[in-house]
Specification:
alpha+beta, Alpha-Beta Plaits, MutS, DNA mismatch repair protein, domain I, 4 domains, 17 helices, globular
């Protein structure tokens, strides 16, 4: 192998950002190329119903004007031949684990930031070749072994690696060095800088800062006065500077949330209860999987006209119990929402997360003897769901009268109830 030391900095790092292209659609194409390859496809929930939303779409569909967040009906008007696919998150996680295993074989310093992207610190990976050779090998293996396209950014830090992976899509590899920042990034509008959202970009425009180059040249004191501590970060980001490290042990989640866009508007507590119970159960299971407890809970409600409200409260004590979460979000619904108004989307988010071993969970004085039994039952249910899927165990409260009837009609066939009616939100940004 050639001497590759010349391609590595004597100090500093070499970071890759691996970003899967149209991940959900690409997974379905890899699973069934005869049906999906080269065609306009989209993944959406509630496919047959008026409220279905496009979660992601293929590049063929994008060229025809389809975009993420578009309603299915509108997308079908634009492209009647669009193939709309129901999401399969177990399948997506299988492919996610597979592509990250390929990436991990080139460095143990891998930080997964979502189901379809990760950072790699390959500073110590000279034995595998130059940074470009490593990126090309990873990209080729992911395509050959999994049938998935990806874009990879190569840079001296995470921020620039992320920006670089967006430069050539799909299936591109881009290098972005600090000395390239003025030429490649400074002419772009501020909202194209990773980490700058629409509201921040609008505020920058009001200050007369329209481009990344203008941001890089801005007075840091002025930025801090207007944005607080984020002002210093904005200044650094405009100049391509980022001191964040690739952390294989991902930072503890600040919150755990789950939302569902409903196939029809629901009205009243009777219709809302089974949905909130499903959501509470799912976030509680994710909480337990990470060994955490929550001290607060937030309820999100969106109306048919797309207005969103959030209401939160503290739990009486840190908890990992779906029952505690469910009671709290039902209380928030009753206290803060007119039950006669229709609801289009519901969400439950857990806040104030801490490690279970660091918390002091209070036991009910009248129920403490049953607590070990409850924990054993919960653990058994979690194991069944981890192995056989979300619908392996459904409690009676999760089923409305309609659901109960469907369960009786379909239990011979094992029809999934939850996934017919609820869309798990796992956005595919690419």
């Amino acid at each position: 192998m050639q001497n590759v030391d010349q391609y590595y900095p004597t100090s500093g790092r070499v970071i890759l950002h691996v970003d899967m292209n149209a991940f959900y659609c690409s997974v379905h194409e890899a699973e069934d190329p005869d049906q999906f390859r080269g065609k306009a496809t989209a993944v959406a929930g509630s496919v047959e119903l008026r409220k279905g939303i496009i979660v992601t779409c293929s590049y063929v569909a994008r060229r025809l004007g389809i975009s993420t967040g578009m309603q299915v009906q509108k997308a079908l008007r634009i492209c009647p031949s669009l193939i709309v696919i129901k999401p399969d998150f177990h399948l997506y996680r299988k492919y996610s684990n597979a592509f990250m295993q390929i990436a991990y074989s080139y460095t143990p310093l891998l930080e997964a930031v979502s189901i379809d992207e990760c950072y790699l610190d390959i500073t110590g990976s000279r034995q595998f070749g130059t940074p470009m050779e490593i990126a090309e090998t990873i990209q080729r293996r992911i395509m050959e072994e999994l049938g998935l396209p990806c874009s990879i950014g190569i840079a001296p830090n995470k921020l620039l690696a992320k920006m670089a992976s967006d430069l050539k899509k799909p299936n591109g590899i881009s290098v972005l060095r600090l000395r390239d920042v003025p030429k490649i990034l400074w002419d772009k509008p501020c909202n194209e800088m990773f980490g700058i959202g629409g509201k921040t970009a609008e505020k920058l425009r009001k200050l007369g800062i329209y481009s990344i180059g203008q941001l890089a040249a801005s007075d840091e004191k002025m930025l801090v006065e207007n944005f607080g501590v984020m002002g210093s970060w904005l200044k650094r980001a405009g100049n391509g500077i980022d001191h964040g490290i690739v952390n294989p042990e991902r930072e503890q989640s600040k919150s755990i949330g789950h939302t569902t866009t409903l196939p029809r508007d629901v009205i009243g507590l009777a219709e809302v209860r089974p949905i909130l119970l499903n959501l509470s159960d799912q976030v509680a299971r994710r909480l337990r999987k990470q060994g955490l407890v929550a001290s607060g809970v937030q309820l999100t409600i969106r109306t048919p006209d797309m207005k969103t409200i959030t209401r939160s409260r503290q739990l009486e004590a840190p908890s990992e119990s779906g029952e505690d979460i469910y009671k709290s979000v039902c209380d928030l619904y009753v206290r803060h929402w007119n039950g006669e108004k229709p609801v289009r989307l519901l969400g439950v988010t857990l806040q104030g997360l801490i490690a279970k071993e660091d918390s002091a969970i209070q036991l009910d004085l009248f129920d403490y003897e049953q607590q070990p039994k409850k924990e054993s039952l919960t653990k058994a249910m979690d194991m069944l769901r981890n192995k056989f899927g979300e619908n392996a165990v459904l409690t009676a409260g999760m089923l409305s009268d309609t659901h109960s009837a469907r369960l009786r009609n379909h239990k011979e066939r094992g029809t999934s109830l939850q996934k017919d009616n609820l869309l798990s939100v796992e956005s595919d940004k690419d």
